Amino acid sequence: MKKITAFLLLLLCLASFGQEDEQNKNFKKVTETETYSTRYSDGKKHISTSEINEYYYNKQGKITQNKRKTFYKNEPYISTRTTYFYNTNNKIDYTETIILEDSLKYRTLYTYQNGEIYKKTTSYTRNNNLTNYNESYNYNLQNELITCVFLYSVMDLYTENLRRNLITTFTYNKKGQMIESDWTKSDSTYKYDRIVHVRNRKGLRTKDKIFNKNNKHLKTVNFKYEFDDKNNWIIMKHYEKRQLTKAIYREIEYYE
């Protein structure tokens, strides 16, 4: 149960960011397969699949559905399907997500202010426990996202209530591209990290520098890409100390 609860929190948090470096024009379907590398005690390197995402888009470039399958020890673990519904302004009105293993279904509502997303609200009941998840967004005068506040709570009839307050601050460059994300002001239950995102002229991340709450440099992740004939990346590899740690492979289907 704890694994599934943690997975739900991770799923909700990750849904906030989406595909940051995407240019969704003419995308019909994108399939992303994420793998990671581990070196066992025998010295051999093993490649495992961590998750597979399928993204579906309409002809206006809006995402309509996301199918996600996660793996645990290289075996299928949890599968979800999220469907996106839009309002008359062509902005996301709400999403419906179903966890296929136990048919748990929940809805995330979107609220807007001055044309920008102001809040996302999710709640669901599972095993007599009521879970509430809220995200609040703050912008600067240029309508750039500068702060997100994530509030996660579970009302449990049998154990202590769980409540997490996650706060992240974003910094942008003059092109509106995120160059820093800072989680260090979150509550003590969250791992404190500040990440500096280094980008190339195309806006793609080339390097992530990760620091802890005391501004100590923990590690650097380098990114290398391969592109298709439409100049969209189809392979993104993550390296730490010149060692491949993760790779994402994409299959892109375009509208004609």
UniProtKB/TrEMBL annotation:
Signal peptide per UniProt: 1-18
Superkingdom, taxonomy of origin: Bacteria
Keywords: Signal
Protein name, as recorded: YD repeat-containing protein
Source organism (scientific name): Neotamlana sargassicola
